[in-house]
Amino acid sequence: MQSHLNILRYEDAAAVLPLRLRRLAMALPEEQRAAAEEFRLRAGRPMTVLLPEGERALEAVVEPEELETLCDIATEFSRYAAAETMREGYLSVRGGFRVGLCGTAVMKEGGNTALKQISSAAIRIAREHRGIAEDLAPRLFQEGELKSTLILSPPGGGKTTLLRELVRKLSQGVSPYGPRRVALIDERGEVAVMHRGEPQMDVGPHTDVLDACPKALGIPMVLRAMNPQVIAVDEITAQADLQAAEQAAGCGVRLLATIHAADVRELREKPLYRRLLEERIFHLAVHISHTGQGRTYRVEALT
Length: 303
What we know:
Layout: H1 2-14, H2 19-26, H3 30-35, E1 38-42, E2 46-51, E3 54-61, H4 64-74, H5 83-86, E4 90-93, E5 97-108, E6 111-124, E7 141-142, E8 145-146, E9 149-153, H6 159-172, E10 182-186, E11 194-195, E12 198-199, E13 207-211, H7 215-225, E14 230-233, H8 239-250, E15 254-260, H9 264-268, H10 271-278, E16 284-291, E17 294-301
């Protein structure tokens, strides 16, 4: 069943490709379509499909014009409507897909105002993994209250997928605690994948999404405007993010956040994250591990 759903998601992502490249993508064997993670297009180079074992080249050299066509298809032939995210190097596509872009930046007064002459694109084949937080979510509650939680794993370990599922589960309600109002600061557009104001991924009925906004700005915004019980963010990476998280914790709001780290010991080795632990903003950590049967989730107390 899951393999069939994965193939359908692959086919939906392939629909963003120009016709010639789409035909080649659809000729891939079913087992590879089910496992594929991305399409990679580079002008003058063969298109590749990213599989768990690495990139597989297809027999098609990408033409620069095809990258422009890709952008037209992804924006539904309305690049103007997508100008804000395009200058940030990505496009959110109906159905929950995200297209990363490289090209020539148009600089003005120290900032990038547009992206032209597209040279590379990566279409991420986003897949929801419903149910992976079913057993985990109740373990994040103590004495009837959700505890602020960090999700830890190295890059590519499944942090964003787990964050999305936890947001959805908390928004729906974890028995016997009931639903929570969740504010999701989706800075890179990878969790909810907003398209014209509508989440393309299911993040739950009581979730408010602030899209394409830096975490340090977004956290105070939702504190003032949305009265959240939980704030969720993907990848704390800067001092300003930490300060905003401190502000939210001081207001009694619970936090969910991801960090690139294998374990708590690695957190303690980095000054920014060491301070995060010292300030006791977060009380639990979820470690994501990979086994032959898939991912496992271990909860560790931080205080």
